[in-house]
UniProtKB/TrEMBL annotation:
It comes from Pedococcus bigeumensis. Pfam families: MarR_2. PROSITE patterns: HTH_MARR_2. It comes from the Bacteria. Residues 31-164 form the HTH marR-type domain. This is MarR family transcriptional regulator. GO terms for biological process: response to stress. Coiled coil: none annotated.
Length: 171
């Protein structure tokens, strides 16, 4: 895995201290530090995930699409459903599926229920790449092996609370 640049101090803690000096304690320095920490952890995890699944010719976004297709009843979904479930813009979903199609990991076929629509269908090669990438992610503990089971539950609950508060889904 690519290693991040190591600083001799935590830049987010330093930023919170400087934030407080500049704007005072009522300026939400802990909220700023929490938000910045979430963004940094996301960068670290995506870098790790892309490196892991990259061994199998995937990006993490393409891996997620393959998992979504594998979870579907018959290995196929419409493009609008893919965009909704991946929580991405339809153009991004189309781009992901086009790239997977070019790799032979999915096929695009006409939707028999909608003459204008297209279904993405996972291929045996796509299923094999997804299974191998999943094994790597699991072995790597999704980059979160430093957390206990209780900490995973706590982290999930806290982040879910943020998602519910943002109306990310119907709770």
């Amino acid at each position: 895995m690519p290693k991040p640049i190591r600083l001799p101090f935590d830049p987010i803690t330093r930023a919170a201290q400087l934030w407080t000096r500049r704007w005072g304690r009522t300026s939400q320095p802990l909220a700023m530090a929490s938000a910045t920490s979430i963004m940094r952890v996301q960068q670290l995890l995506i870098t790790d995930y892309d490196a892991l699944v990259g061994r199998h010719g995937l990006t993490f976004a393409r891996y997620e699409a393959l998992v979504l297709l594998a979870f579907s009843r018959d290995g196929r979904l419409g493009m609008s459903k893919i965009g909704q479930r991946l929580m991405v813009h339809p153009t991004s979903a189309t781009n992901i599926i086009q790239r997977l199609d070019a790799q032979g990991f999915v096929e695009r076929v006409p939707n028999p229920d909608d003459g204008r629509g297209t279904l993405a269908v996972i291929t045996p090669a796509g299923r094999a790449a997804m299974e191998a990438a999943t094994a790597d992610l699991v072995q790597h503990k999704f980059g979160l092996g430093m957390l206990t089971a209780a900490e995973h539950e706590q982290l999930f609950d806290l982040l879910r609370k943020v998602r519910v508060g943002a109306a990310d889904f119907d709770a």
